[in-house]
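We both want to read discrete structure tokens more fluently, so let's practise on a single case. Would you write everything just below, so we can both look at the same thing?
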Amino acid sequence: MTRKFFLIVGFLIVFALVGNAQADPEFGKLEFIGTTRIIEIVDGDTVIVDPPINNSNEIRLIGIQAPKLPLGRKNFTPWPLGKQSKAALSALALNQMVTLYAGGQKMDRHGRHLAHLLRDDGVWIQGRMLSTGMARVYSFPDNRALIHEMLSLQNQARKDTLGIWSHAFYDLRTPAMAAVLIGRFEIIEARVLHTAKTRKRIYLNFGEDWRTDFTASIKKNLENI
């Protein structure tokens, strides 16, 4: 079976999609945090709730990234479809009761909950945002829960060119483009030609000459995540 790897340039997070995972999350394996109501939508991946849970009323929807809005940042250029993503999350979640589940790190440095949200009627908020193309998968080693389900939903939305996947700003990139994309959140699709393993790292080589071609480096303690 051919393996395609998707890399986030600048972060070098590698997602290997092998076959089609079932987009049916097992919330029973996650840690229950609490239940509350969403009273405000900040953007396509952040909400405000009331009552607060553990003295925090802000939730970052873990595992996804929506198009960014300025949110008071000076000279920040909004990403395309940012307003549409916020509107989609508002239609999906505003004034809804939701249950928070943790699959790893529970809070970020800003004091926000990092949680998967399940609506009272069983709708998984992250899953719906991904399946409609209103967000991308955005995962880190300390919080990988439901990653396979999320990637499956994203993959289908991309195939169907839904939401952000219909806009050139979010196109998948090639290794040849990587040099000018460092530091940005971009997804590169490529075929691995060679692999190498050292004591501390695994290398994925996408060209014949690792010295000059595009290569990804992964810490060995992340290889089974």
Q: What stands out?
A: The chain has two domains: 4-21+167-222, 27-163. Residues 104 and 113 are 11 Å apart (CA to CA).
